[in-house]
What we know:
Radius of gyration: 17 Å
Structural class: alpha/beta
Strand content: 25-35%
Amino acid sequence: MTDACAPKPASFLPAPGAPPVEWRVSQGLTDYAFAVAEMEARANGIAAGKAAELVWLVEHPPLYTAGTSARPQDLLDARFPVHATGRGGQFTYHGPGQRVTYVLLDLNRRTRDVRAYVCALEKWIVATLALFNVKGEIRDGRVGVWVRRPEKPRGAQGEPAEDKIAAIGVRMRRWVSFHGVALNVEPDLSHFSGIAPCGITDKHLGVTSL
Length: 210
């Protein structure tokens, strides 16, 4: 098990004197199609220099989203609406009790490196979990943030059990990022059983929440 983001990823701090990033927190449940339309419009505005960067925190009603690498066989039970989306990754679940953070940054003014950007998001989640005395970890070849579960059975080759606590899927348009991070705070974890989350089917790998 290795940290795919070692050494430290490139900095994505804004340049000195750059306009402040807008932070927005939406109350209640935000319609997914509405959120995507808002992101699309904002990303275009940022790319055109007409809108500020944005970090937008929401919760969605129960739904599944299919990233650009989603495989049909990983949709096991379409019990909730399924949305095809242009973000990277495979199938994931969104629903009440999960904090979704959409991050719209102009990487033209930061670092034009998608992998380093994803690593920066992962490190951000790890640092957030540490505030709650939860040790999140990053794994090479498995995007997202994981926690060790020594009380669970190991894998067929003796691999230690781990559960995913945060998923990441991003999209770039003219080097402006959108989509982002989904952190499981207190969702109904049984809802994940309708998909192979992020294409993962190994028995020693699961999903957990804060």
